[in-house]
Specification:
alpha/beta, Aspartate Aminotransferase, domain 1, Aspartate Aminotransferase, domain 2, 3-stranded antiparallel sheet, 11 helices, 37% helix
């Protein structure tokens, strides 16, 4: 079992930061990489032509290891979820009469892309609402999602866990149903990859997109994605010099290339070698790989379990264990507790969480201590006595 890793961060001692799903704190080691990279440009001669490619390869390699991808060339550096999903949208083979299935209230980037595409091409967007129930909510939501997939479905787009409350979706079952109807599976891993084990080999997604500034512990405006065979001969949303074949040969760049780099690199953002952000994210994912996502889940479970029990005894609604992540879960208030009042309690105690809809999103990580959860539960106890 991993021990607490707070010493690797610069988190203030007087706050309880239970909000990694909003933005992770910076690892000291990652900050050092960033500072060094900023000053490295004092001498631009130190950046050799090969650095443009060794830098990107290192990041893709770490990400491929994290998600159990077949090779680093099946991955691409994409600065945001919206960027990666724009590439998916451009290459989705679907039209009038077809449909796309998504879960309700996904992160906006994983809705707007499909909403725009549905309007452009006459595709039906099937949004599967969460059931209005307490007991068995996650199980039922998964069942409804599977029922929505039919012979006209061309794509299912979902997270591994729901970004607002941590509800876990059964990717193995969704993959099986997608295979039955010939649909592709696109996963937004932003709120899971880095903290929840994920295997391309097991789930066989056609694309996985992820922002890097949350559970992968990287800087903002950084991310990495995976594109499977469905996308291997596709057209990227932008054409830059690095995603073309033989771009490593600087002396030959004036001889324009029709062909792209092999694999998924065609979908990379321009200036993907970003000599500040790319090394920082590489270092961050390297640390996450060293910890291991399963160990992070185990740590979060051990840390939170006693306090989740107390919260349930106070009437707070929490999804059943088998249908939620241990690193991210939602709290829904009983009728006698007021959301505005609980926000005041959090502010007084310097507790940092996120409110998403009617869910209080709790997202701990290896830097959290028992005292953080004690503060959280105390806030609810005050409300229970009021």
């Amino acid at each position: 079992m991993l021990e607490n890793q707070r010493h690797l961060f610069n988190l203030p001692d007087d706050i309880s930061y239970l909000n990694c799903s909003y933005m992770s704190p910076m690892l000291k080691s990652v900050a050092e990489i960033g500072v060094h990279a900023i000053y490295a440009k004092d001498d631009p001669s130190s950046n050799k032509p090969e650095s443009f490619f060794s830098t990107t390869s290192a990041l893709r390699t770490e990400f491929a290891k994290l998600i159990d991808a077949p090779s680093e060339r099946s991955c691409a550096i994409t600065p945001s979820v919206s960027y990666a999903l724009a590439n998916v949208a451009k290459n989705l083979k679907a039209g009038k009469g077809d449909n796309i299935v998504i879960a309700e209230e996904q992160f906006p980037s994983n809705f707007y892309a499909w909403d725009a595409l549905s309007k452009e091409k006459g595709i039906t967007l099937k949004v599967v609402a969460a059931p209005d129930m307490i007991e068995g909510r996650g199980k039922k939501w998964n069942e409804l999602l599977l029922e929505a997939i039919d012979s006209n479905t061309k794509m299912i787009a979902t997270g591994h866990v729901h970004w607002a409350d941590g509800t876990k979706f059964d990717l193995a079952a969704i993959r099986q149903r997608a295979d039955e109807v010939g649909a592709i599976l696109v996963i937004d891993g932003t709120q899971s990859i880095g903290a929840l084990p994920f295997s391309v080999a097991d789930f066989r997604p056609d694309a996985v997109v992820a922002a890097g500034y949350k559970w992968m512990m990287g800087p903002y405006a950084s991310g990495v994605s995976y594109f499977g065979e469905y996308f291997q001969d596709g057209n990227p949303i932008e054409n830059n010099w690095m995603n073309r074949l033989n771009s490593e040969d600087f002396g030959n760049l004036i001889n324009y290339q029709e062909q792209y780099q092999p694999g998924s690199i065609r979908y990379e953002v321009g200036e993907s070698a970003n000599f500040i952000l790319t090394p920082m994210l590489t270092k961050a994912i390297s640390q996450v790989n060293e910890w291991g996502p399963q160990n992070i889940q185990d740590y979060c479970e051990k840390l939170t379990s006693p306090y989740i029990k107390e919260l349930k005894e106070l009437g707070v609604q929490i999804e059943a264990d088998e249908y939620r992540g241990r690193h991210l879960f939602g709290l829904r208030l009983p009728n006698h507790m007021d959301m505005e009042e609980i926000k005041k309690q959090f502010a007084e105690r310097k507790i940092f969480v996120s409110i998403r809809g009617n869910s209080i999103r709790i997202s701990p990580n290896l830097y959290n201590l028992e005292s953080d959860l004690e503060r959280l539960v105390d806030s609810f106890k005050v409300m229970d006595r009021a």
